[in-house]
Amino acid sequence: MAITKDGVELIDAKPVPRPGRWASAIVAAILAAMTAHALVTNVNFQWQVVFEWLFSRSILQGVLFTIILTVLAMVVGTALAITMAIMRQSVNPVLRWLAMAYIWFFRGTPIYTQLIFWSLLPTLYPTLSFGVPFLGSLWGWELPFDTATYFTPFWMAFIGLGLNEGAYLAEIMRAGLLSVSKGQWEAATALGMPRATIFRRIILPQAMRVIVPPIGNETISMLKTTSLVSAIPFTLELTFIARQRGQATFAPVPLLIAAAIWYLVITSLLMWIQSFIEKYYGKGFERRDNAGTDSPATSSTSEDDHKAQATKLKFLDVTP
């Protein structure tokens, strides 16, 4: 048993053996090996066909348009979400109820149904116009245009996805804004900062720590939701191309596996990016699990080591 210079005997603590951990790890490894063996050795998956199509031009085109749709939909959704989150907290009841109605409608109806209605937009409104409401048709202050000409399937796809995503992101944004203390607003206002500057420089950076993880999940979910734009129909996204090529070659399973591999690759990349963003906005909020739990070896360090550690601590010198 170790003894310090003060004559205090230190306990020679040993970790409690936990055989259950090793047993569960062995069982999990066996199950993983069995699953991998079943996937690799099953000839019905036709892995040679999978790798033939994995980097084909049509599949890569689908990957590109899927990424573009995801990015544009998230940009539209994020812009709408910030606007709706601010409107939800407005003192103006009209703005507050408009935001609530938007969130209620787009969260309450299926995304597939919304995309079908977007595909019917040229039928429901063959012509749209910009002008002064209710007066443009009387005085000629309007600019009509053909809906089918300008609202292509690609435009309807990312607008429909963005409008739906904005309703979900709005609640995430609102939760993040509410996580910031009201005193931050009051202190910045007392310094004479404009509200826009307060929101951009003070509130939003602190709220991002709460906002980033769920937005990362929503981005990954949006990546897979793009497979529903065939309802418009938009025929250049990954799942539609894989299904179409699979039907043409009578090999639907290998083509869908190739699409699934690309979804996994893109998802892994998004998760990696999310982890870096979380670390950036989480500075100063990391968990300190080892705080105050110094080991016996640490407690028996010399006075010089304690002085060296003390010099690393920096305190504010407050002068009355």
**Major sheet:** 2 strands, antiparallel
Order of helices and strands: HHHHHHEHEHHHHHHHH
User: Spans with pLDDT under 50 lasting ≥5 residues?
Assistant: 289-302, 312-320
Taken from the alpha-carbon principal axes, the silhouette is: flat
Mean pLDDT: 84
Membrane topology: Multi-pass membrane protein
GO cellular component, one term: ATP-binding cassette (ABC) transporter complex
Protein name: L-cystine transport system permease protein tcyB
Family: Belongs to the binding-protein-dependent transport system permease family.
Short description:
With 320 residues, this protein is mainly α.
How would you portray this structure in words?
With 320 residues, the chain is mainly alpha-helical. The chain has a domain at 45-125 and 144-282: MetI-like (MetI-like fold, Orthogonal Bundle). It is built from 15 helices and two strands. The chain has helices spanning 19-41, 47-54, 57-88, 93-108, 111-119, 121-124, 136-139, 147-150, 153-178, 182-190, 195-225, 238-249, 252-281, 296-299, 303-311; strands at 127-131, 142-146. Strands 1-2 form a two-stranded antiparallel ribbon. Helix 2 (47-54) packs across helix 13, helix 3 (57-88) packs antiparallel against helix 12 (238-249) and helix 12 (238-249) runs antiparallel to helix 13 (252-281). The chain is flat and about 95 Å long. 20% of the residues are buried. Mean pLDDT is 84; it is low at 289-302 and 312-320.
Give the tags.
mainly alpha; single chain; two-stranded antiparallel sheet; transmembrane helix; transmembrane; 320 residues; MetI-like fold; L-cystine transport system permease protein tcyB; transmembrane transporter activity
